[in-house]
Amino acid sequence: MNLFRLAGDMTHLFSIIVLLLKIHATKSCSGISLKTQELYVIVFLTRYLDLFTRFVSLYNTVMKIVFIGTSFAIVWYMRYHKVVKQTYNKDEDTFKHYFLLLPCFVLALLLHNEFTTMDVLWTFSLYLEAVAILPQLVLLQQSRNIDNLTGNYVFFLGAYRGLYVLNWIYRYFLQDHRARWIPWISGLVQTALYADFFYYYILSWKKHEKLKLPA
Amino acid sequence: AEEHAAKDEL
């Protein structure tokens, strides 16, 4: 465990807490893509299959349970909570996210470390996580006003993966010197998808203006 | 063991 990875995990956790707080406090999920949240549930379920079979550390186990639990809670709020679900605007959440599942799964069948169920699904979860933010970014581009909490949520989500890239650099040069192409490449693709969001987010922050993504 | 090490991350 190094500082970059710990900071990355904490930023990831923080992004989820920001989102849960937004939904719980405002009883609204406007501007949030349910599709991205559903993809995250699939990512965590396929990523943490070894939750009960392999013990890495208490930290690891606790964080996995928290990530699975919170992502379920967010989807539950947006789908079933009597007040929140009315604030979900499905006509602006238009991305065909199920079209992401098959390519990621096929790619995992072709490109993986070991051809085992656990490893193929773990690899699938990495590829899926890389593109899971797409419905949310598309929604932000279409929605008129992006409220601060939603903007912060996406920012911290991107920052977490950026910190993981630093963690991989640190681990490779200072620790185990082992290349892990699959997490590296999917993590870089994921971080790259945030690049333009980061640009407009920081620009709006510097100009003290409302965040607006070009359509 | 080699690949499992890669899975110590979240």
UniProtKB/TrEMBL annotation, chain A:
Subcellular location: Endoplasmic reticulum membrane
Leader peptide range in chain numbering: none
Keywords: Endoplasmic reticulum, ER-Golgi transport, Membrane, Protein transport, Receptor, Transmembrane, Transmembrane helix, Transport
Taxonomic superkingdom: Eukaryota
Membrane topology of the entry: Multi-pass membrane protein
GO cellular component, one term: endoplasmic reticulum
One GO MF term attached to the UniProt entry: ER retention sequence binding
GO biological process, one term: vesicle-mediated transport
Database matches in Pfam families: ER_lumen_recept
Membrane-spanning ranges: 58-77, 98-115, 121-140, 152-170, 182-202
Listed InterPro entries: ER_ret_rcpt (IPR000133)
Family as reported in the entry's similarity comment: Belongs to the ERD2 family.
Protein name from the UniProt record: ER lumen protein-retaining receptor
Native source species: Spinacia oleracea
